[in-house]
What does this fold into?
Amino acid sequence: MTAVDPREELVSHLPAMRAFALSLTRNGSQADDLVQDTVLKAWSNIDKFEAGTNLRAWLFTILRNTFYSGKRRAHREVGDPDGVLTGALAEKPAHDGRLQMSDFLRAFAQLPDEQREALALVGASGFSYEEAAEMCGVAVGTVKSRANRARNRLAELLQMDVHEALEMTDGATVGVLAAQPGRHL
Amino acid sequence: MTQSRGRKIPAQEIDRHLRRAFQEITDEALPPQLADLLERLKAGEAAATGKAGREDRS
It folds into this structure.
């Protein structure tokens, strides 16, 4: 049987990579730049990918490493740019009896990078705790702890009440996600 | 210390919201620069391979 060139499969992972990149950067244009950088690195280092292993996990690992490298570089150059963004997003959610997706995403954007990353990997992208731990280079317990703290923090930010219905408003969802290029996740 | 006003949202509910948000993003059409990127990389490699082949034959 002829082995399939993993580069042929790259395209099928681009949408998931975009979603993960958006969860890290919280900015549409930065997310697309991050995916582009990741693809270029993956393409030129494809010989380092081990056939038979999880290509998406490999791509996500490159993506998150690229993100944190860029962030460290930006921090050295201009201080704490994320602090500005976090502050801009740190408005208290407006409650009208239902949890709107826009409120949820605003709260999600306020989480620390490592908590957002853990939840994006295990909660949204379907990776196991073990896979996420390997991708992040930390212990499994650390990923579990980060994900649990992220969920608890989200609950606090959303000030959920036991009687509040957990429904989403589709219009709000589409509005938040469709805003380009400065949309946030 | 911050406190929740009511009980915590079940973890599954948080994850369900996230999956839905991610699904909406993955359902979007790719921006042109990303959609074209792989084609450009393939074309570049094909050109490089062709050039190497011609040099080998000469």
User: Anything to note?
Assistant: Residues 79-98, 161-182 of chain A have pLDDT under 50 and may be disordered.
